[in-house]
Amino acid sequence: MIRNRKHLKLLSIMAAVIIASSTITTQGKVLAATDNSKDSSVETKDNSKAVYFQSFENDLDNWTGRNADIVVDSSKYKDGTKSLKITNREETWHGPMIDFTDILEKGQAYHFTAYVMYDDPKGLDKQTFNLQFQNEVNESTKYVTIGSVTAEKGKWAKIEGDYRIPKRDIVTKYAMDIEMAYKPKDQTEDSDKVDFYIDGVTVEKCDMPEKDFQRNLKSISDQYKDYFPIGAAIYPDLLYDDIHPEFIAHQYNAIVGGNCMKVDALQPTEGNFYWNDADILRDYAKENNMIFRGHTLLWHSQVPDWFFQDKNNPEKPASRELLMERMKTHISTVVNHYKDDVDYWDVVNEVLSDKEGLRRNDENSKWASIIGDVDGDGYDDDFIELAFRYAKEANPKGKLIINDYGLESSKRKTDEMYNLVKRLLQKGVPIDGIGLQMHVSMYSPDAQVVKENMDKLASLKEFKKDGDFVLQVTEMDMSMYSGSGEQMKEPTKEILAQQAAQYKRLFDVFKEEKKQGNLDLVMLWGNSDDDTWLDNFPVHNRLDAPMLFDRDLNAKPAYYALVDPSKVDIYKQSVKAINDTPKIAENADSKWSMVKAFDVNTFIENTDGATAKVKTMWDKDNLYVLANVKDKTVSDKDSVTFYVDNGNGGAIKYNVGRNDGSNSESAKCKSDNDGYEVQWKLPLKEIKDFNPEIGGKIGFDIKVEDQDSNGLNSTVVWNDYSGIAPEVKNFGQIQLDGKVKYVEAKKGTPNMDGEIDEVWNTANSFNTDLKVEGSDAAKAKVRTLWDENYLYALLEVKDSNLNKDSDKDHEQDSVEVFIDENNARTPSYDGDDAQYRVNFENKQSGGGNRNMDKFKSATKVTGDGYIVEVAIPLQNKAAVNQFLGFDAQVNNAEDGKRIGVTMWSDPTGMTWSTVSNVGNIKLVD
């Protein structure tokens, strides 16, 4: 799993506690009180109802500093004449703390209030503070944030929250602290270390519903008992609260430790193993007859520094022999400790690079660089082979998994994992399966991409001698955010409906993979929304809702989408129809090549069968639809049905059979090798009171029925998966859009020298006019040419201040070109998609499936900017009338930072990861 910020915090704090104190109350210095000038913002308050009140008028009470110094101070105050000042802070969590163990009652709910203020010159104009509880349980600590406030510099801000003290006897201490929004130590800045003040700390009893779960709700694991076990990642502290142990045992039949079985947790110092937390999970799994996964024996992250250091000199790296010895000792000891109690081991985790090949030193992995190519076969993946052999030797019965993220969505990573595991299996390495982490969002990946990647990885079973090779979904969660650029939002009804639809599509894939004998387990990375690593990651102070159950342990729409779709409010998808007029003819108009397809692949009958890719256009008279149905089981009864809201409470319904032929002016059907193609047009006058214009919306759905000799084999729809046939109220929407970006490229081969040859003067041009980022954005005039082997582009950039100070290529003055050779506009890069970047000094970089061996570029600095000339290699010979997906981008840099981005076509700025919104180039003579 990607590093869990939430729980790494726990580890760093525990480390500090061990160093500074034998108890949770890590002590800072208590300084003598100061007597400075008084603040005029005095506020009095009746605290007669308070269980606890402290305004620091007399003393510190039992407040202490957590790796910080505290002092009663009279220079600033909110109530009375004094406050508590916190100084000498080095990390965000350093601050004041009070032990409430002997003050507050177990099982009682309280409302907590405090005031916080900072005026430190190092501080930002606004900074966030958290009110947090710490519960000490069995030598470990659970941290719960109960309130948060964003304070303005120099002003007192009220922070408050409700919290019920756990009533279980095993909770031995509970304390409250106030700290700044968490950041890892290596990301902490001076503004995170400011001095601050607190005052007016009040605790009052309150009414707060006790959390419980839907005990009569059938468990998700029971609902899927005919397919695969469904489990959850948990942490030992969850098993000590008042309700989660019952809830987890009720809903799931498998568990995995979130952090407690990683290397740093099990062997923090050499030869000293800590088993307590992992044993707790092992025992819980046994008591509840659950599958128990071990995560993870080897990883590049959360490994103690000593593991890679020389025994006598920590400044020197460990030798190959020493690292191999340590790896074997750790794996053998851990696997032997748990023997048959662990059903599956993630032996190695996240060994693939985010760039290409194996993860190496530049991505914080030292395994390959130190161990290297031991057997001399030309590959330095021997650390992986050794890890599996050590694990198998320690427990011959254990099932051993290689685990990684991105396999569900990245073709590049899938191909690299396939090649890696194939090579190792052919050497007899005991790999029993591949774990796909499946950290996804409600926006992506596309279910069809997931299925294709899983199918490829599952085909590795042919290289396993006994054929016993499986896939597992190991860490699934589904963020409601599209990425780190989104700020905090509430999980609205619409958002939860969209999430439910995506969960259903992916679980349909899982069910089909199980039917094919490929998948045997699905694990969720968390049990409910109240315990997810995605809270505050990757964006601080942003909560997420990625699980099947909400923060109150109630089933969300995603749960019902997996077990009873009729109970779900259907999310209304929206797609754009471009403004153009295709011909309805025997062969589909070439204009369709410019349109992005959407998938019709949500099953309402069965989980395998015909699916379709659909495109739409419109003009003032008609709506046009092109459906390419993938269906290799031929039947006369195969059909596509189009549904359109008639604007009068009903639906226009039009059915086209596979063998209806081409005898209609409004519809054509033609079979091909993969299935059949349907063209259809609807006169827009059939929609009551509809005015066709850009921005207009049309209610729409599609159903594809796949028949075989036994009758109906499967049914898929685009939007309404709640019943047998789409209903008007659940139709998706087609939004009428404008023209697409389009240019014709003439045939010609320029000299690659950075000069504007005569042939360039014959080329059509276009500009990067779309501002995607920043206000000071450089632009380029772009021209394109082509021959059989290359697409050529010339970019003339206007930028008077050239800069390449950043060590990040995309933050230098540079241009980027993107190509989608088959113009499929897939949501993630497929095999023909590439990104090429060239800075003004001709430094090349990029991403996707680029071919740097054949890529050519030349640059020239001009009086008002620079010229970049590129030759983009094509995988297949180009031909006249072919459409290519293409985009151009200009990065504008200043003082080592990117300050602006302009594009030709894609307004999202996400072209580095998807070619969905690129423009179109048509190759002409």
Architecture overview:
Strands 33, 34, 35, 36, 37, 38, 39, 40, 41, 42, 43, 44 and 45 form a 13-stranded mixed beta sheet that branches. Helices cover 15% and strands 33% of the residues. The two termini are 51 Å apart. It folds into four domains: 5-205, Sandwich (Jelly Rolls), CATH 2.60.120; 220-567, Alpha-Beta Barrel (TIM Barrel), CATH 3.20.20.80; 574-736, Immunoglobulin-like (Sandwich); 742-924, Immunoglobulin-like, CATH 2.60.40.1190. It is built from twelve helices and 45 strands. Mean pLDDT is 91; it is low at 1-45. It is globular. It is α+β, with helices and mostly antiparallel strands. Helix 6 (320-338) packs parallel to helix 8 and helix 9 runs parallel beside helix 10 (447-458).
CATH topology annotation of the largest domain = TIM Barrel
Shape: globular
- Structural Rg: 31 Å
- Overall number of domains: 4
CATH level 4 superfamily of the largest domain: Glycosidases
- The parts where pLDDT drops under 50 for at least 5 residues are 1-45
Please give the oligomerization state of what you see: single chain
The CATH architecture classification of the largest domain is: Alpha-Beta Barrel
CATH class call of the largest domain: Alpha Beta
Category from helices, strands and their pairing: alpha+beta
Q: Tell me the number of strands.
A: 45
The percentage of residues in β strands lies in 25-35%
